[in-house]
């Protein structure tokens, strides 16, 4: 059976977004080492948005090489404060340190999406959201980390906006889908342009 549209991701939230949008697809995770790609591009001095695009493209290419006839969607997101790129915290100590750095500041989520076929990129786009954390107290932070426990280790920012993480913020500017890691509106527009979904 021919495979049409493929999401190169194991992310439950990305799968949910695509399913809710009525897309017919299969999810086949990419098999790449993101940190290795990041280290390999250190000499290119990629900014956070460019790195997100590179990772999304590499994911799309990886799965597309295995399924050349499929149209493959690759996605990635980086979180940055200036040029500093954050990664998922290894433990709650690192999560607390990162949240203290972000407290009272505006950080950026750089969400990239790419389309590939036959091992080649057809299109790539990066959308950005700016999130401003409030000046929460040290006591609040300790209680937040206690209540959210291991959940803070599952996201790069040590928060989930759909959960208690929303209490860390005073302002959010950007598309909801971009914040969740899949710029869905540009993707849908491109799929329509390619004739993959109904106009």
UniProtKB/TrEMBL annotation:
Coiled-coil segments on the chain, per record: none
Cofactor(s) for this UniProt protein: a divalent metal cation
EC number annotated for this UniProt entry: 3.6.1.9
Keyword Thylakoid assigned: no
Catalytic center residues: 76
Catalytic activity: a ribonucleoside 5'-triphosphate + H2O = a ribonucleoside 5'-phosphate + diphosphate + H(+); a 2'-deoxyribonucleoside 5'-triphosphate + H2O = a 2'-deoxyribonucleoside 5'-phosphate + diphosphate + H(+)
Pfam families per record: Maf
Keywords, sorted A to Z: Cytoplasm, Hydrolase, Nucleotide metabolism
UniProt-annotated location(s): Cytoplasm
Main function: Nucleoside triphosphate pyrophosphatase. May have a dual role in cell division arrest and in preventing the incorporation of modified nucleotides into cellular nucleic acids.
Similarity field: Belongs to the Maf family.
Protein name: Nucleoside triphosphate pyrophosphatase
